[in-house]
Amino acid sequence: MILPVYLYGSGVLREVAKPITEDYPNIRELIDNMFETMRNADGIGLAAPQIGLSIRLFVIDISPLDTERDFPQLRDCPKQKIFINAEITERYGDTVIYEEGCLSIPKINEKVPRPDKIKIKYLDETFREHEDEFEGYFARVIQHECDHIDGKMFVDHISPLRKQLIKSKLADIVKRKTTCSYKTK
User: How far is it, in rounded angstroms, from Cα 50 to Cα 101?
Assistant: First the structure.
């Protein structure tokens, strides 16, 4: 089922999400709905707060990216991944500036500095614990989604000047004057 994506200005996007346990109701259905919602909106990542749930869950699917031509470094990455109760334990490497967008902040893209390597602890969909390292663009997508479950958004990482320059666009999103090709709330 395609769910509405909560837009910038929605309170749930600023909450620090709560961990969940194996007995979370209908978790498999929720994960399936999140993937369907993300794909319908042409996204590559979606966190539970973006669909109104303040829980530590996000999904990533980089398969729409052209990993042969545009992102060859992603060739060996998993194409689809589920992260439950994720916590980044280390950020390291070079700080790389790259343009990001977000389903909750439609029609705005900004250059965001992020470390290019991370270590992360998380549970998979069977609630098995993992501790992995990721780098490059995949690490960036994970950091973006982890921000969502920590009550942050990519615009929190841009300079005050850039934020001032997009202030009216952000206000239009808050006032719901921005149209999207996907269902929003």
Answer: 14
The span from the CA of 57 to the CA of 82, in Å, is 8
pLDDT of 77 > 90? The answer is no
The answer, yes or no, to whether residue 70 has pLDDT greater than 90, is no
Q: What phi, psi does 180 have (nearest 5°)?
A: -130, 160
For residues 48 and 6, what is the distance between their CA atoms, to the nearest angstrom?
A: 10
Cα 53-48-39 angle, rounded to 5 deg = 130
Catalytic residue set: 145
Which residue, 4, 1, 47, is CA-closest to 151? Answer: 47
The set of residues, in sequence order, having a beta carbon less than 8 Å from that of 70 and lying 6+ positions away, is none
Q: Check residue 69 and give its pLDDT.
A: 67
Nearest to 181 by CA among 6, 71, 42: 42
pTM: 0.95
DSSP string, 82-145: EEEEEEEEEEEEEEEEEEEEETTEEEEEEEEEEEEEEEEEEE-TT--EEEEEEEHHHHHHHHHH
